[in-house]
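Researcher: I'd like a candidate sequence for this fold, 81 residues long. If you have to choose between options at a position, lean toward the conservative one.
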């Protein structure tokens, strides 16, 4: 087998195994929080660990000029008027 193909195959398998292990760890944490502290703690962790990163990425990529008029004091790289 070609060494490049072997390397790509190994990296693909490694990536899938890492994702599966991280998912399993996440579920173990959610289950532990549910057993130890109840449903509110498990939901808070589950929602916080999924919604907060998504909100942070959304805020980073948000165009602050959508739907608004361009104002003169804006120092961004926006050429809309």
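Model: Candidate sequence:
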């Amino acid at each position: 087998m070609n060494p490049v193909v072997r390397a790509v195959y190994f990296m693909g398998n490694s990536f899938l195994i890492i994702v599966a292990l991280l998912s399993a760890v996440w579920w173990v944490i959610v289950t532990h929080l549910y057993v130890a502290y109840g449903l509110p703690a498990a939901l808070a962790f589950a929602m916080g660990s999924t919604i907060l990163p998504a909100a942070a990425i959304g805020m980073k990529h948000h165009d602050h000029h959508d739907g608004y008029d361009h104002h003169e004091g804006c120092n961004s790289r926006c050429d809309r008027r």
